[in-house]
Each structure stands twice: as C-alpha cells, then as structure tokens.
Amino acid sequence: MASRIFISKNESELTTLKTFLKDRNEILIAKTFLQFSPLAFQLEKPFDIIFFGSPRAVMFFKAQMDIPASAKIACVGGKTVEVIQAINREVAFSGEGKGDVQETSAAFKKWCGDQHVLFPLSSISLKTFSSLFQSNQKTEVEVYETDIVGSAIAECSTYIFTSPSNVEGFLIENSIPESAQVIAWGESTNTSLKAKSISVNHVLSQPDINSLIEVLK
Hints:
The protein has helices at about 15-25, 55-60, 80-85, 100-110, 165-175, 185-195, 210-215; strands spanning about 5, 25-30, 35-40, 50, 70-75, 115-120, 140-150, 160, 180-185, 200-205. By secondary structure, it is α/β, with parallel strands linked by helices. It folds into two domains: about 5-35 and about 150-215, Rossmann fold; about 35-145, Rossmann fold (3-Layer(aba) Sandwich), CATH 3.40.50. A five-stranded parallel sheet has the order 2-1-8-9-10. It has a five-stranded mixed sheet with strand order 3-7-6-4-5. α5 (about 165-175) links the parallel β8 (about 160) and β9. α2 (about 55-60) runs parallel beside α3.
C-alpha cells in the first residue's frame, strides 16, 4: 500500500510536492485547519517600511489600502516575495539566506535602523519580528482574522506541520501514530509540537517546499 504524507497546507499551493510524491508512489494529503476573514483597520502614523509575514498579510492589506510608493517592502518566504512582485512592487528585504528565524529577525532589525515599521498581522500572530521593536518604532495592525477549525485526517506515515496554529487544529480531532515521522516547518512549529509532547524528527531550517523535498528524499 502506498504511504500517505500529510501536510497542513492547501493542495493548491503544493504542485511541486504532489508531483514529487506521485513519482515515489506516495499519496499527498493536504489540509489546513485555518480559516481567514478580513478585519477593518485604519492607520494613523506614517511608516517607512512595511513588513509582510505571509502572502495573506499582503492580500488582506491590499484589499483595503494601497502600499505607498515611498514605503520599502520587507518580508520572509519565497511565496510572499512572489505575491509582492505580482503587484509590481520590489522587495527591499526578503530574509532569504539569513539563516533561521532568530537570525533573520535580528538581521531585519539591524537593516531597519531607526526607521518606523508597519506590521500587518493576523489576529493570532506570534509577532516574532515585531516583538523586537520598541513601541515608538512600530505600528502593529490586525488586517485579518484566523480561526482554527478541526477536521479528521486519515492515518499517515509522515506529518508535516507548517505553523503552531495548524498543530492546534490537527489535534482537535487527530493524534499522531507512534511509528510516524514528524517534520516541523521552522522553529516556532517545532516548539509548539514539543510543548504538546510530540517528538519531531526534523526541523526545516529554510521553510519552503524545496527544502522539504530534500528532507523527504
């Protein structure tokens, strides 16, 4: 019987991974436990830099407000870079090649200097980057709400969790078999899994599909 690989993402984002697993006669089960909805917001302070932590932050911010031409755009993750480039804007700081999340956030803080930074956030954001800044140097604004919704998943041989919130959603109706392998999509997800006494076999140092495929090989 073909082994099943679970990942807490939408299947529409996983064309490359699905092809890779199909060639190995493995079945991909993709499911996010998160649902998103816009939140109305207003900005009162000007900003020099806008930091997007995810593609959704870009989309929900843009749905209500244009990004000023004068603002520098910063982000992490190749997918977020692609979304920003798709709206014909350049990324001044991408975080790629800066190491793990602690190194990347420290590099971003240094890069910003004393400029004022706007952080469009989810309602359940961990604020990994914005927490490094003093209140007089940042504006945090919630632009979308994230709800966690449970759903039953067929038993798999490997589980890949992409965020602490998806770990929570998975555990509402599921558990992990003792024999299964667990992969964490970065350090914050690894910390969440360990806090719930779930053993992690590998933590992706670069949270992207190409790095994941290298691990699965």
